[in-house]
Amino acid sequence: MGTYIMIGVLALVLGILVGYLIRQLVANREIQRTRREAQKLLDDATTKYDELLRGAREEAIKVANAAEADSKERRLEIQRIEKRVNQKEEALERKIEATERRERELENKKKDAEKVTAELQEIRERQLAKLESISGTSSVEARELLFQELRQEVEEEVSQKVRVWEAQLREEADERGRGILATAIQRCATDVVSETTISAIPLPSDEMKGRLIGREGRNIRALEQATGVDLIIDDTPEAVTISSFDPMRREVARIALGKLVLDGRIHPARIKEIVDKTRAEVEATAKSEGERAAYEAGVPGLHPELIKLIGQLKFRSSYGQNVLLHSLEVSHLAGILASEIGANAGVARKAGLLHDIGKAVDHQTEGPHALIGADLVKQWDKNAAVVQAIAEHHGEAETSSVMGAIVAAADAISGSRPGARRESMEQYLKRVKDLEDIAVGFPGVDKSFAIQAGREVRVLVKPDRVDDLEAVRLARDISRKIEESMTYPGQIRIVVIRETTAVDYAR
To answer: What is the enclosing helix (H) or strand (E) of 339?
Structure first.
């Protein structure tokens, strides 16, 4: 038993030794293989290092050669630049020397010129003294005479030039203006719009007057109270006169009175019924007329209140000219004029249609109708150009916009053409006399005559007091005075006539 144990122990020890030896052999082989691989890697690295070193040396040689070549080229360039700089310095020195030489020459010439000037001044003074002694006139007096003659010559020449320029400008402006206005007028073929506002109602007989008055005047009082007008029943045979500042009320009264006369039943209840119906009819007519006018003028989108006010202009007249038809005509003319000069034709048509809208309420509000109309339109239309044109078209506001000038021109065309408006004989004679009195009020004016129905003023001046230049100024001053102090349609031509007549007798 002990022997077996010993054998087992020996076998175990031998196994351990054999295993150790085997592992040692395997380890030695692995170490040798690793050394061989390490040597191989070292050899490969050495080879690559040698190759890289050779490449780096070659690249360094190339870079050194290129740097040497570049350095050589730069040295050559620096030498060339230094050479050019030296040349420019030499040229600049030569120019400086030439300039200094010229300055010395100019200084010498200046001294010579001063010397010559002094000699000439001395000679001039001797000649001037000699001339003064010969003529008996001092140099100051001679200078004043020369200045007066020169001034007179310059004024005459300026006057001639001014007349020529004004004639040319006036001719060009008139020709262009006539072309534009002629085109606008030809394209706006409207009828003559002069009419008379009807205020007298014919009656079938004088017996109807009594029925209109009624017992103790109750019918006429009821009619006046319902319509807001004054009825004038006088000795005029078979006629009743309606008086009112409100054109709408006057129209309602006219139509209602005509219906009552035809109906024959005249009493307060019937009067109130007829007047109410007539007022509704007239308001409907005004609305439809306003819509028709806006459609014809090509102005869509107007506020209903503006439409109603435009329609009321149908019952309003100015100098015998129906205001609604006049507004339509101004709208067409303003649109055409705006198209001709490149302005906004739509805005011009709207401003032209609304320019007299203030006349629909001017019997209720104080102030010029242009400003009243501008305030009305401002409430319902936010177009500032339209409001400004309405305010400016009669000069109540300073004209500062193209649209204001267009509407003013269209308004003048519509109102001043023959047959458009009526003017009483008293007003015409007063206007003519005012024109003549304004012209005679200027100094140097001998006589003045208003001709062509007040469209032209001929002014005769005293030739010994007014020269040619003053005649031009006088014409301009008279025109400005007329513009400031008078109101008139269209334009007035001022002609100043200066005539010198020499008379002698042969005996």
So the answer is: helix 323-341
Q: What are phi and psi of 322, to 5 degrees?
A: -65, 125
Render pLDDT for 71-83 as a digit per residue (tens, 0 to 9). 888 888 888 898 8
pLDDT 10s digits, 426-451: 666 788 888 899 989 999 899 999 88
Q: Six-digit token pair at 436?
A: 């003549």
* Alpha carbon distance 222, 232 (integer Å): 14
Q: What is the pLDDT of residues 275-314, one digit of tens each?
A: 888 888 888 888 888 889 888 888 888 888 888 888 888 8
Task: Single out the residue of 251, 239, 237, 235 nearest to residue 202, CA to CA.
Answer: 239
Task: Give the pTM.
Answer: 0.48
CA-CA distance, 61 to 117, in Å (whole number)?
Answer: 82
Phi and psi at 116, nearest 5°, equal: -65, -40
Three-state DSSP class for residue 194: strand
Going by the DSSP 8-state scheme, the letter that residue 490 receives in this structure is S
Which tokens go with 350?
A: 């709207």
Which of 415, 406, 249 is closest to 325 using CA atoms? Answer: 415
Provide DSSP, 397-413. Answer: S---SHHHHHHHHHHHH
CA 67 from centroid of its chain's CA atoms = 73
Distances (CA, A) of 50 to 38, 47, 56, 63: 18, 5, 10, 20
d(CA 14, CA 271): 157
Total Cβ atoms within 10 A of residue 313? 26
CA distance 242 to 251: 9
Which residues lie below 8 Å from residue 410, measured CB to CB, with a gap of 6+? 184, 329, 330, 331, 333, 334, 337, 348, 352
Q: What is the pLDDT of residues 253-272, one digit of tens each?
A: 888 888 887 777 888 888 88
Q: How far apart are CA 1 and CA 363, in angstroms?
A: 158
Residue 357 CA, distance from chain mean position: 24
Residues 259 and 203 sit within 8 Å (Cβ to Cβ): no
The residue count of the chain comes to 507
Q: Which amino acid, residue 437?
A: D
- What is the rounded distance in angstroms from the CA atom of residue 494 to the CA atom of residue 223? 53
Give the burial class of 352: count Cβ atoms within 10 A of its Cβ; 0-12 exposed, 13-18 middle, 19 or more buried: buried
Distances in whole angstroms, Cα of residue 137 to Cα of each of 148, 168, 403 = 15, 44, 64
Rounded to 5 degrees, φ, ψ at 232 are -110, 110
